[in-house]
Each structure stands twice: as C-alpha cells, then as structure tokens.
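Section 5.1 Outputs to date
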Amino acid sequence: MIILSHAALNASLNATSAGFLGLGFFFIRRKNILAHKFSMLAATCASLTFLVSYVIYHLRVGFVHFPGRGWSRPAYFALLLSHTTLAVVIVPLVAVTLTRALRGRFDRHKQIARWTLPLWAYVSVTGVLVYFMLYHWFS
C-alpha cells in the first residue's frame, strides 16, 4: 500500500487534474462531448479536492521555506509567482466556464474555455513542479 505525504497528495491531485484536462481537450477535438464532459468534471473534482487539501495542509504546516541556493532560488520563485498568480485567476475562470457549459451556453463556453484550459493546465503542471522543487530538489 502506498501512503502519500500530504504535500505529495496535493501534487498527485494537481497531476490528476492535468491528466483529465488533457483528456478533455483530446475528446473535444474529436467531438466526443460526453467523454469531454466527464473529463472536465473529473478535472474540476480533482482541483477542488486539491484546493481543500492545500488549505488544510497550510493551516496545519504554515509556510514551507525553499531550501535551494544559487540559480535555483530565482527560478523557483519565478515559477511560484506565476503559478500562484494564475491559480488565483483560474478559480473564477473555471467557475464561469463550467457554469456556461452546464447551462448549455456552448458558444460562450467555447469563448472562455480557449483561455481557461491552457491557464488551468499551466497551474496544474506548475503545481507539480513546485512540489518537486520544494520537497525533492535537494533531497
């Protein structure tokens, strides 16, 4: 049995979300609406679970300091800054995109989804990168 640390669980949830986002894109390009819908709802569930888990983790642990030195330090903080900024932006974008789809407003859904998908994917993937840089880069 594999037992993940709380931080590893959060990274796994981000990776899961990224995977479902990729599947959702794959399915919509092939006009498989039902599979696209399932994939995007699964990505949403993974991201919501991540968000709850992340808040609980940081309420318990607090701030985690980056142990790196040299060139890795500014690289880490640049990645973290872009990740955090877009993570704040993506929450309302996902809410609007999902609401438009569930209400059947597919013309408006498609307009915003063009922005939401790549930004959401970036946040999910960089979340995993931040985890690896923070917890495994110097192990």
